[in-house]
Amino acid sequence: MNAKIVGHRGAALVEPENTLASFHRAVADGADILECDVHLSADDQLAVIHDKTIDRTAAEDSPRRTGAIADLTRRELDEVRLVGGSSIPALDGVLDIAAEAGIPIYVEVKAVAAAGRTAQLLLDRGLAHGADDPHQAPAWIISFSQEALRIARAAAPRLPLAAVTKEPDAAFWDFVQEIGAQAVSLPIRTLSDQDVDRACELRLDLNVWTLNETELLRRAADVSAHSITTDDPAWARRVLEGSGT
Fold first, then answer.
1. pTM surpassing 0.70?
2. Which CATH number covers residue 203?
3. pLDDT digits (tens, 9 = 90+) for 143-163
């Protein structure tokens, strides 16, 4: 089985993360799946950004350089300039890129408040299906937050879900079964054979993150991960196809 390459925040090693340029680059560089992060603004708009504040990613010359996403309106977020002159995208814009490329997208809900709105947007766009055949699904919701995943499942029962964790303990595996998740997403550096076996036993897809080193990429191939998340899709493809290091 060939692992699918997931463009982490687009192609975050070569373009500013979670920008439209980064997602376009990931597509151009051969990503099989896009991955983005989503928060909810003060006026209930879905903003694609990893952190709960703009402080880390705002450029030094940005008109607005600090503040929490939850405290800023969409208009205020539009005042933020990221490195390279990009702005913070709306989730709709990133979904458009995935749709135009004909590839799936993993939408990582970072704030619980964004879960219901994200699920509803995917429903409205006809993307909230595929739980019975997740390899054909156009969109997934993934999250570290069990509450967010519960909200998403209630709002969109046919939407594939992936539970993300750094520590897959017994309670995590119980939750995965309770929620009816289609996949688990685990860190490659601490991935154990027991984790791999448990995912296989439960018939769950296994995603591993974040792979930017050849040794880790080969480890993912060895355990037959269904998908691998990387900041550099072009590099990952070269390594997996045996033409790079």
1. yes
2. 3.20.20.190
3. 999 999 999 999 999 999 999
